[in-house]
Structures are given as structure tokens and as C-alpha cells.
Amino acid sequence: KEPVIAVSIGIATLAMFSLLLSPYNKYLGMINWAMTYTYLVLLWDDGAMPDVPSHPCDKKGPSLE
Prior knowledge:
This protein is an all-alpha fold and about 60 residues long.
């Protein structure tokens, strides 16, 4: 009944299908598969870990000497 609603739904549907069929999705998938998700986690020493510095800026531990 409302042509504006029908046209907006048609445009939204076309946009979704064009995103799914885009050639960029192939390359985005390849990049996401190849890159690992690694995040920096700060590790604070609670006294039970002698090899880990108490602060990230401290130069302690066998690998940081």
C-alpha cells in the first residue's frame, strides 16, 4: 500500500545481497583467516612469579637482562 516502505525494503534487501556477493568478502575472509587475534595483556607480578617483572617498565627477569 505504501510505495515508500516497499522501495526502502527493496533498497535494504539489495544492499544486503550486494554485501554478501561482493568480491571484497573473499579477500576479507582470507585476511581474517591468515591473521591471528592476539591482544596485549599486561601481567602484574604478585610475588609468586620470579621471572616476570613487577611492572612492565622494570628490567627484570632472564630475558630482559
